[in-house]
Give the backbone structure.
Amino acid sequence: MTNSIAELENADCILVIGSNTTSSHPLIAMRIFRAKQKGARLIVADPRRIQLALMADLHVRHNLGTDVALINAMMHVIIKEGWHNQAFIDERTEGFEDLKKILDAYTPEKAAEITGVAADDIIRMAEYYAKAKAGSIVYCMGITQHTTGVDNVRTLANLSMITGHIGRESTGVNPLRGQNNVQGACDMGGLPNVYPAYQAVTDPDNKKKFESAWNAALSDKVGLTVSEMMSGLSHGPLKALYILGENPMVSDPDTAHVEKALKSAELLVVQDIFLTETARLAHVVLPGATFAEKDGTFSNTERRVMRVRKAIDPVGNAKADWEIIKEISNRFGYPMEYGTPEEIMKEISSVTPSYGGITYQRLDGEGLLWPCPTTDHPGTKFLHKDKFVRGKGLFYAVEFKPPAEVVDEEFPFWFTTGRVFAHYHTGTMTRNCPTLDSEIHEGFLEVNPGDAEGLGLRHGDAVNISSRRGLMTAKTMVTDRVTKGVVFMPFHFAESSANVLTNTVLDPVCKIPELKVCAVRLEKVA
């Protein structure tokens, strides 16, 4: 997030797109509720009528995978009406004229044909956001999990810069992370192309710096993403996989492909707190400790680094993840001498500029938001105050591209996935909690009443759902939360896994799969 969570409640316009915030991030949703109580305008762009839409000043239900067309049309209107912030554009950005050229074609009327959103509603969206004193954008994986995920994010960044709604209190472009400590994992180099703090592995100076810090020879080659690893196991040179706290048998697209890949590994090691669907396929399972059984830090979605303190000793043979990794490394012949998590944090501070001023002593209380470069720095509440990291913000001229897979006569329904309030990601923890599992204990398929009638489906009927990748069965939930031609399914439930159906095709830049849209066929179970 460019801005902090607390700032949301003081925004006077919030655009929520690709985020079912109340279900997936309820504490952040509370800040949005407070902003609404203070008079903020709320715009919700979501193909489903999610809970947040019920209190929105404007809810638009754009067609799946048409985010770029929708946002481009907003910017077309903003420029045409003179609502853009020319002073900010001139002083803080570059590339505006290239963007302006491609926006000429994105009239509200043209965008209405692509998105299904009325031209008048697109104009209202543009006016509400552009005329706000402090406009904030909130998005989640409904924006990123597309073959155009990078384009979607760049377009939202364009929107924030064209209006000057960035680098100030209660503004910004604010992605909500999908799981606990994803931000921290990325900060620490849990990506195939960077060292900690997003320092590129291809930069010789970075390579030299970390070779010196770790006393080891390092590669300057970019590694594989998760999806590429699965293909590597099935068809390439990859022979072994070590999975920590991840459950790709439920979370990754095309489950049959994932299962085949994992079963083809010569060695599969899984480190987790429960025997997940993925762990059941492993040659070796390493029992990790839960959050309550270890010391360390988490970095949350707003960049806040927080202490985690051990409450109980690990149960059974479980160990803290860092202890397991250290022990394996030592046995491989690379000695790790860490004695405590605090020693690891000291190393992090020494090689990670944005964490340079973070120490355990300073993390007592509410923690610190990075960048925090020195021990006397208070942390950074919001980013880009006076300038962008690259100097001037760069506009990207992004054209609309349709999803990789579209509906046809054989597969006539648009299929999308998401979360429900009672469960978290692949259900590894929540489905082991009887109270939460009793709230929603099985998967379901949301179907519009008009489509249900045409298929002879009633609420609770079993329906077969098939795509070009697989087939599964679930109960029908007849609801107008989805529009005609669109069906929705939560992905938490392994026994009725939505990801049996989803598409493995990747965004060409960041290599994220298109989990949020594919084409399916429905057939009532006799």
Remarks:
- Residues 149-163 form the longest helix (15 residues).
- The chain has a mean pLDDT of 95.
- The CA atoms of residues 16 and 138 lie 5 Å apart.
- The two ends are 48 Å apart (CA to CA).
